[in-house]
Every structure is written in C-alpha cells, then in structure tokens.
Amino acid sequence: MSAVLPPPFRILGPAVPASPVILSVPHAGRDYPPALLAASRLSATQLQLLEDRHADALAARAIGAGFTAIVATRARAWIDLNRHEREVDPEMVDPRPAGDTLIRSAKVTGGLGLMPRRLRGSGDILHGRVPAACLAARIAADHRPYHAQLSALLRAARDRFGVAVLLDLHSMPPLAEGSDLVLGDLFGRSAQARYTRLASDLAAARGMRVALNTPYAGGHILQTHAAPARGIHAIQLEIDRSLYLEADLRTPRADLGGIDSLVLRIARGLADEALAQDIGVAAE
Q: For the domain bounded by 9-283, which CATH number is listed?
C-alpha cells in the first residue's frame, strides 16, 4: 500500500488576501517521501543541500503581519516547483519519453530539472529511473495544485486591489561576487521597474549588497504567474543563506539575522507602492 503523503503545501495568513502582495516559498519543503528515500543513493541529510534551507522562516514575520503565503512542504528532491512540468531529463524516466515532448533547458542539463538528477559533490541522486506513471502522479499531486493555488491567490489579490505582486522567496549559497541578495524580474519582463527598484532600495538601505537578475533572473514561477499588463507583477528574492543560518548552513540563527524583518519591510513597501499606484490610476 502506498504511503499517504501530507499536503504538498500550506496556505499561511489570510485565506482571502488582505494585501496585494502574495509570498511564495517553493523550495523550503522538508517532507521526504519514503519512495524518494528508498530510491535515493544519498541520505536525507545530503538531499537537504537542495533545499532553500528554512527559507519559510523568512516569511514568518510577514505572515504574522497579515500577508498571505503559499509554502511548499514537499522536498525539492522530490519535485521542483520552479521548473516547467516538461523540464525533465529523459534519462531519469522509464520508459524514456520522446525528446520532442520535453524542454531541455540549461537547468535540466545541469542536473536540476523538475526531478533533480544530481547533487554537486555527491553525484547522481537515484539508483535507477523513475516510472513514468510515478512522475505523472507527482505532477498531478504536487506541481499542478501548487501552481493552481498560487494563481488563484494572485487573481484574488488582483481582483480585490486592482493589482497583485508576487514575492517569490528563495535562498542561495554565498556568491563569489559577494552579493547578499539577488532580485530577479526576468530582466524587466515580470514586474514594472518601480517594484524591483523599491525592493532593491529597501535592501540596500539595510546595508545589503544587491544584484539584479545575475546570476538568478527568475524561473518557472515568474514565467508562469507574472502578467504585468494584467496587473500581476512578480519578483524573485534570492537571499544569501549565510545571513540567516549558522555556519553549518543548516541551522537557523536565533534571530535569523534580521532577514525576516527585511522580508516584511519589502512586502509592506511593495504593498504600499501597489496601492498608491492603484489609487493614482483610479483618480485620473
């Protein structure tokens, strides 16, 4: 009998958005299904290196202040919600799918597709291939519901406030170039520049070194849900995890380095900007 898995995500904060800003945390899930651990060459501890470790804690202050967030619970090693459902390495699936049905992106080539194939320094994750039916079940149970719920939250916020802003929250390993935070807006395609500029200014005011779109411009979540022409904007935040984790890069600092307060400040700033703009447009 198959194990019954917990829900693939949680909705935290108001079920009906009380703000135009919605937070998404797709890579902090810590639920490792038994089927994954049984098929993995690597331990759960090794697989944790794929996580945006405890990035969900960075949204806690914003949630407590009344913002709505969707937080994935399933581990990224099981399925990556920031990839297209066709961003699959064909060598991982049995039977091997036809190449013209898949998206062979740079992420897939690098081993980080919808199902991550390898972990840097540890090699391949799985002993063998994943049955096609099992992959389809993951997509149906985890991937599509997450995106459907995120889409519904953004529509609800846009319908209520005239505009919605998605803050897609991630963490990254320390970068050689020294950036503390990378803002991604798909090079201006996923959000009006004023939103990205505001987020950058708020982070810089806290003393953070901010980069824009390099090396992280945004992934499938921004590509799917951003629609600035229809009043839905989306920004990805990649935060250096050494700023809120202990030196082991696994254990949260007691105060999270104040990064949760920064996320709240950015969320509030984006909400104020969105509402001010909406009022201004209505007054014209």
A: 3.40.630.40
Count the Cβ atoms, other than its own, within 10 Å of residue 207.
7
Residue 193, classed as helix, strand or coil, is helix
Which amino acid is residue 31, in one-letter code? Answer: D
Q: Please, is 38 exposed, middle or buried when counting C-beta atoms within 10 Å of its C-beta (0-12, 13-18, 19+)?
A: exposed
Give the residue extent of every domain in the chain: 9-283
Return d(Cα 73, Cα 25) in angstroms, integer.
9
> What is the model's pLDDT at position 283?
40
3-state helix, strand, coil in the chain (%, to 5): 40, 20, 40
- pLDDT tens, residue by residue, 12-32: 999 999 999 999 999 999 999
125 has pLDDT over 90? yes
Rg (CA), the chain: 19
**pLDDT tens track for 163-193:** 999 999 999 999 988 999 999 999 999 999 9
Q: pLDDT tens for residues 215-258?
A: 999 999 999 999 999 999 999 999 999 999 999 999 999 999 99
Residue 266 near residue 16, CB atoms below 8 Å: no
| DSSP letter string, 32-77 | --HHHHHHBSS-HHHHGGGS-TTGGGGGHHHHHTT-EEEEE-B-TT
Length of the chain: 284
| pTM of structure | 0.95
Q: Cα-flanking dihedrals φ and ψ of residue 137, to 5°? A: -70, -40
Question: How far is the C-alpha of 41 from the C-alpha of 31, rounded, in Å?
Answer: 17
Contact 209, 276 (CB under 8 A): no
Instruction: Check whether 127 has a pLDDT greater than 70.
Output: yes
If you search the block for the tokens 């090693």, which residue do you land on?
77
